[in-house]
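B., you asked whether I could sanity-check this one before it goes into the benchmark set. Here's the sequence:
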Amino acid sequence: MLTGKTVVLGVTGSIAAYKMANVASMLVKLHADVQVIMTENATNFINPITFETLTGNKCLVDTFDRNFQYSVEHVSLAKKADVFLLAPASADVIGKVAGGIADDMLTTTFMACKCPKLIAPAMNTNMYENPILQDNLKKCEHYGMQIIAPASGRLACGDVGSGKLPPEDELVEAILKEIRFEKDMKGLKVLISAGATCEAIDPVRFITNHSTGKMGFALARVAMHRGADVTIVKASTSAPMPRYVNIVPVTSAQDMFEAFVRLAPEADIIIKAAAVADYTPETVATEKVKKKDGDFSLALKRTTDIIAYLGQHKRPDQFLCGFSMETENMLENSKQKLQKKNLDMIVANNLKVAGAGFGTDTNVVTLITEQEVKELPIMSKEDVACEILTAILQKRNK
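And here's what the prediction gave me:
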C-alpha cells in the first residue's frame, strides 16, 4: 500500500512516545520505508533500539553522530521524505517549529523538509489549552502544516481532558490520506451510501437485510485517500467507519431518500452502495399484524426507489453509479436497471458466487456501462473500490 514511500516519524519527549513503536510497525507492514528521528528527551521514554529493530533503519538522535554513511543526514533524509509526522509533539518542539528554531536533528530535518508535515500534539490539558500553545499551532497551520487534534480522556498525570495522542490507527490513516494515492479526485464531491436500512414494524421489530457497510466504506475511504470531499449517508452498519469523511446517519429508506434529495444536487459523483429494504410496513403493526396458523402476516408496501429518482433528477455533469445484487440473470437484469434508471454505471455481482456479497472482506463484481462490460476477479473490497473509482474517473473524463 505504501511501497516506495518514505515516512519520517519525529518522536519527542512525551509519555506517549511508546505508542509510536506501534505506528512504526503498522507502517512497515504497509511496506513503507520508515525513518525515525528522536529528541534526546524522547530517549528517556523509549529506547532508539526499539525503532531500529522495527524499521531496519538507524534511529537518528544526535545531529553530529558520525556512525552512518557520510552525507548531510538531515538534508538527505528531508529530500527523500514523502511525509513527516511529528508525534507525539511536545509543547516545546511545537514552539520551536512554529518559530523556525532548528537546534537538533529532529527540528533541523523538519525545517529542511518540503513534504507534507503533520503534527500530533500530546501533553497535559492545561498546556494544550494554553493560548501560547494554541497560537503556535495556528502559526504552524498558517505555514501549511496539518494539525491532528488530540483525543480526550484520562492523561498520564491523572487529569481528564484534551491532550492524549490519538490512537495509532488514526495517525496511520492521516499518513495514508496524504501519500497513499495521487490526488486525482481532488476538488470532487462524492456522495456514497452505506449499510442496511431498517423499516420499523413496531417499537421492537423491523425489516432489514444483511449489509454491513463494508463496500460503501471502502469506496469512501479510497475516494478520501484520492483527495475527494466525501459524504456518507450511513444506515445500519457493523464495519469500522472511515475517518476524515462526513457522516450523515439515517435509519429507514425514507430517511435515506430525504438525505439524498438534500445532498445530491451538490455532488459530482453519487454512488449508491447501501442495501435498501425493498418494503416497509403499510401501517402500524397493531392494525395489520395478525397471528395466523402460528405465523405473522404483515401488509407491506414498496419503499421509494432512490436510485431511480436520482437518475431522473441528475445534472448533465453528474455521475451516477448504482449496485445490483442478483441471484440469477445478473448481466441481463443489471443492464436493464442501468437503462431504466438512467445510470452511468452499475456494479453487479451474483450473491451465489463465493467471495461476493454481504459481510465478506472480498467481492467479485462486474462493471457495466452502456459501452462496456468489465468482469473483475475476486479481490479485496478496497481493491474493488479502487477499480470502481478509476473506471468512474475514466468515463467522466471522456
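One thing to flag: The radius of gyration is 25 Å. Otherwise nothing jumped out at me.
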